[in-house]
Amino acid sequence: MIPPQTLQGGRTPAESEDAAVQAASGEPTTVEATTAEPTTVEPDVTQAVYALTDRSRAASRILASATRATKDRALRAVAAALTERQDTVLAANALDVEAGRANGTSAYLLDRLSLDPGRVAGLARALEELAALPDPVGSAVRGQTLPNGIRLRQVRVPLGVVAAIYEARPNVTIDIAGLALKSGNAVILRGGSAAAHTNAALVEIIGAVLEESGLPADAVLSVDQYGRAGAAALMGARGRVDVLIPRGGRDLIQTVVRESSVPVIETGEGNVHIFLDESADAGMATDILLNAKTQRPSVCNTVETLLIHSGAAAAPAVLGRLADAGVRLHVDGRAQALLPEGTASEPATDDDWGREYMALDLAVGVVDSVDEALAHIRRWSTGHSEAIITNDLSNSERFIAGVDSAAVLVNASTRFVDGGELGLGAEVGISTQKMHARGPMGLAELTTTKWIISGDGQVRQ
Length: 461
Description:
alpha/beta
């Protein structure tokens, strides 16, 4: 069994990527991540942001009563506008990417920042898919008639004004705006300086289309023009903003959680595990692990730790294929012995088990049972996603029951833990909390509920 270890000090790669955003933007990241001191906000910035929240609140009241047909028509119109104005979006994005490259932003962060015709088409397609989904607003969660004749219904209603703080991810601008619109919410965005040109172009396109569709342009607003101070003012807008969702590296998320007076839905980092059971088929295991690690290493649902059962015959073949694909293996002593001859690796250090690499790196350790794998996961997991590759039904059921994360997968790539892949149309983020939202957050997670109590003159005795 891999012994419990203590993380060393210093930045993780995920935190270093936050620092890369800072370098690319020419200013601190969205919020100051390295200090526990609250951010000081100039009064004029606070008042300007509060004025935006007032406009957003007014827009939210209109959206709350908008029909599904009106919202879906607007979503499809935004999708069409993205296609029609693709050149504008890509030109703005090229400015952000050029600035990021000039400032030494990592290749993986540049990948998140970059758009191309295929990715723009994907954003438009996601909006079309959202338009095809049922409207959550007004749907009944439960209901009953009491013995006294009182009729009860609990129905879904919009949250109201949703704020999002994120970085270098222009796709999030479209995802959150689309989800908010469909679920009847107004949204205020802080997308960070690294994607400033791209986000400004996207918000402008969305606002113009909403107005043409008979909905308020103020339904999608940004505080990017106010920089870091605008983000801090947004975090302090309790009573003006109903919920705040941070999406990014650990530093950003934890600073928002610590400093925000607005209720926060925490989207956690992804220290994702895959357990290779002794019964696993080598071909299936290789396909899953290559996809989970190499398809897009910079995202939160990529695998970061591989745990191998000591009796897994598939292990040498799997490790060899991963190394051939360019994955840098950080192995413990027992995993080292499983490597094919000549396979490059480096010893796992104390902080590898808790690290979200977001790169072509993988921590590899050996355990002697499902229970030992679960113990390791409980020790190091961020509660995002865990998977088992197995042909043993009993072991898969034990793994499912023992994992306490937002998602658990059996014989499938962790890359499927994504709102679009799970049929949600898009996602605001992947919540690792245990409140009303857990896992990929789609339309339902951007609603709350209202009780409707109908009677015929009944009074309480």
